[in-house]
Design goal:
Layout (H helix, E strand, L loop, with lengths): L10 H12 L5 H15 L5 E8 L2 E8 L7 E3 L3 H9 L3 E3 L17 E9 L2 E10 L7 H17 L2 H5 L1
Helix pairs in contact: 1-2, 1-4
Length: about 160
């Protein structure tokens, strides 16, 4: 499968993930942690960056950068994160306060993008990014995060892929 190249500053993240695919040196948990750290560092409008992993019928918070959240376990189908997992599709919300699915985490959050990490048709996790700016996420953010999610899916251990 061909994946379009990514431009800097996110090129370092993509290069890291490609290197892990070619010759894995880091455990899955480290790959996820480095991914959220590199995303958060690369973009000033990413105010909370995290990964949720599917466990049974829930999304369970993995590594994140930003303030702690009370939403460490989200039932699939609930909230924007749960909706993205249930639909298996990226969801971009320009104004979280206008979306009844939004599970409020931080008063300052204005917009959100959630990108499923899919193993074939099955969602095994997702990338969740919040911004304090309204309508902060454009087509370039979506392309990047979907490319990162695709790469993460290829790196997922068999246990994560088995759900």
């Amino acid at each position: 499968m061909h994946i379009d190249p990514i431009d800097p500053p996110e090129a370092a993240l993509v290069a890291y993930l490609e290197a892990q695919a070619a010759a894995p040196t880091d455990p899955w948990a480290t790959v996820l942690t480095r991914t959220v750290e590199m995303l958060a560092a690369a973009f000033a409008h990413y105010h909370w960056t995290g990964i949720y992993l599917v466990e049974g019928s829930d999304l369970v918070l993995g590594p994140f950068v930003g303030h702690p959240t009370e939403h460490v376990r989200i039932p699939i189908g609930h909230g924007i994160c749960g909706a993205a997992a249930a639909e298996g599709a990226t969801i971009v919300v320009d104004d979280v306060h206008a979306d009844p699915r939004y599970l409020a985490c931080f008063v300052s959050t204005r917009s959100e993008i959630v990108v499923p990490i899919r193993d074939g048709a099955r969602v095994i996790g997702e990338i969740d990014i919040d911004s304090d700016r309204p309508a902060a996420f454009g087509a370039a953010d979506r392309r990047l995060l979907e490319a990162v999610a695709e790469r993460l899916a290829r790196l997922a251990p068999a246990a994560a892929s088995a759900g």
